[in-house]
Amino acid sequence: MRLKALLVSGVTLMAASVGSAAYAQQAALMPLPAAMSAGTGQLLVDGGFTVALAGPADPHLTVAAHTLIQRLSAKTGQFLAGAPVAKGATLTLTVTGVSAAVPAPQEDEAYTLTVTPKGASITAATSVGINRGIATFAQLVTNGPQGWAVPAVTIHDQPRFPWRGLLLDVSRHFMPIASVERTIDLMQAVKLNVLHWHLADNQGFRVESKVFPKLHQLGSDGDFYTQDQVRQVIRYAADRGIRVVPEFDMPGHTTAWLVGYPELASAPGPYTIERHWGVFDPALDPTRDSTYQFLDRLVSEMTALFPDPYFHIGGDEVNGEQWKASPAVQAYMKAHGLKDTAALQALFTTRVQAIVARHGKHAIGWDEIMDGDMPKDVVVQSWRDTESLKKAALAGHAGILSAPYYLDLSWPAGRHYAADPMPENLPAGLEGLILGGEACAWSERLSPENLDIRLWPRAAVVAEKLWSPKDMTADIPAMYARLDSVADDLAFAGSRHRAANEAMLARVAGPAGVGAVWSLAQAVEPLKDYNRSTQRPDAVQSTPLNRLVDAIPAESAVAREFGLAVDRLIAQPGDTAARTQVRSLLERWQTAETLLAPYRQATPLLAELAGPAAKLTRLAEAGLAAADAVATGKPLADRAAAKKALAEAVEPGAELEFAILPAVTRLVKAAP
Ligand code: ACM
């Protein structure tokens, strides 16, 4: 009998029996564990599944047990007893120590997971490692002929990088506590361990300040977190082994602060909350002592509220316009020999860093903060390019990579996955300065409704990049082979990426019925990078995010499958299975125009889709003709029409792009 290798790439796990191999194959782990070896047989996870705790009592550990029970109940559809049992449990969670109130930046996250047909155990130093282990265990549970089970296995696992973050921008669009806590649940499920909470920006100051109440009272439209809610979120995250790092972006990105405190700016105001997207002129005035007195009191309040040793001070995208326009600021710069506004910002950063340090914290800033003469303990977060981390490390700074991990730019998962956090050609000995990375969810076009569609499952791919050994994260097709199952698991852990997609598409379809937009939705993706802003520069904070473009994932799985089938057909014109798959998808897309035609004027959400649907129909017709030409070897009859369809498909409109365009283009090119 041939033994089957596990689907998980890079891990040569040979299953000892075909039965367990079948289950193991379905178990899509993400992140891949550092080391695993298969045992014999499987452990059933039936309605009698129980968890026991061992080692010193720790409330965080109890939450971990409940988290696992809940997740397994959701995944297996079985009622599982909620409370840990004293002994004889299916799974025992053993710790040797009690975790601190909140996780530390260099926490021991290693765990060992052992599964035999008789029982399972996860051991770790504290509940933090247990949290990582239960995330793996939940993913390992798969369904087979005998029901739900985990294959026998031994896993020794620990992260490659200590800092594995997710930035959540709650300023541009406020995210309610439920969204934040759900995000934390999902971070736990893929072993992300830092919630970077972007709390203040031009469009909203989102945390209650008792010292300067006009910050949230006038700067948030009433959408802010009370300090009690902040403490609740920090506790919720700590229970799941996750740190919370707040960001108060300054001196730019501060318009919302200035509504209540215009005297902080270099121009008199008055100010209103910014409703547009982009980079704006208002900035804190770096030349007045009163600015630093204000910041000292605010930092004092906020560093007391947020226990993490790191405190993010932003520093990005200061255009210097207010400073250039202010005679007082210009006079100050002249008197202090500051040659440009970057030098002035560097002075500001130095003083704010000193304030942060005086309150016992390490400052983090976006890569612009390196322009100054920063103390070495300032951490640099790259967003403009990957080179900045190397530059930072050469200057002695620790760094966090974000530039290739912007989830709001609607890149495919594979593009994020291709970026390694470790800069190339980093001199030996500096590797330790690369702390890890953060996926970023900037929220110009994210709402509580479509947040999960933008985050999941793509953030899991970044999580793997940050957790798993480098040589295990090089195979992009193998990553995609696991991604669908990972997305299922995330849904069981609470992600609404699929539910929201369906509900939003139903709203878009309205009287047409969701079937009428479904084929179009699978052929398109949102415009990438910042091209949505270019196509709709008039979008503002109140612009509804309820269109097709807001409802669809960044990457169409169907379009990806289509592309692979097209490549098989081009490589093997006699491959009838590939031809059938290509044709059946194209035939579905061909109907897009007809399906929508009766409803073209029914609602504005449908009206904007008439153009894209018509172009999709033409594109599909071109694809069908080309596919037949490739398969039969007979010349493409109307190449001019095909080329016209391709050219028109470059800009579908409605802030969309055709995800299938590259593959159809390849087909037309390959057609004789
Ligand atoms: C940034 O994206 N401006 C940090």
TrEMBL record:
Biological process per Gene Ontology, one example term: ganglioside catabolic process
Keyword RNA-binding recorded: no
Keywords: Glycosidase, Hydrolase, Signal
Domain Glycoside hydrolase family 20 catalytic: 161-469
Signal peptide: 1-24
Keyword Hydrolase: yes
GO cellular component: lysosome; membrane
Coiled coil: none
Family per record: Belongs to the glycosyl hydrolase 20 family.
Identification of the protein by name: N-acetyl-beta-glucosaminidase
Species assigned in the record: Nitrospirillum viridazoti CBAmc
